Amino acid sequence: xxxxxxxxxxxxxxxxxxxxxxxxxxxxxxxxxxxxxxxxxxxxxxxxxxxxxxxxxxxxxxxxxxxxxxxxxxxxxxxxxxxxxxxxxxxxxxxxxxxxxxxxxxxxxxxxxxxxxxxxxxxxxxxxxxxxxxxxxxxxxxxxxxxxxxxxxxxxxxxxxxxxxxxxxxxx
Length: 172
What we know:
This protein has helices spanning 3-14, 139-145, 149-166; strands at residues 24-26, 44-46, 106-110, 113-117, 121-124, 127-130. It starts with a helix and ends in a 6-residue tail after the last helix. It is elongated and about 50 Å long. The longest helix has 18 residues, at 149-166. The chain has a single domain (26-166), classed as 3 Solenoid (Pectate Lyase C-like). Strands 3-4-5-6 form a 4-stranded antiparallel sheet, covered by helices on one side. It has a two-stranded parallel ribbon with strand order 1-2. The protein is α+β, with helices and mostly antiparallel strands. It is 22% helix and 14% strand.
């Protein structure tokens, strides 16, 4: 039985008795596992390995990843509000339109563009950049990315960069 089936079985076994109970795992290896589309609200994963795991489109509100390794994990389109990432390793994550936790993963909605950033990555919608790279791009490069990109970049890039400087994402 894979993790997704196990978690669904766990929730179904508790339904109608005590309501939805959060999952608790400690020091388990979930590297490369597919958690896409799961509602993991309130789950606790202490010291687990999630290297390369897929959390795309997950509801991770209140999920606790204390001490876990999330290197190369795909967190795209996930909701991470109040997600606990203390001591977690966040490196080279996919953060396409992710709603962050306001500490290690931060997000902004500016016009029609979702800006998400961590200590090492910056996303404009689903365009990924090194945290420092975008301000060094010439206008011709930005213009080639998307028809409206240059106009948005000229208006908002320095403001977004200042926000990232004044309110940097914490490195766990």
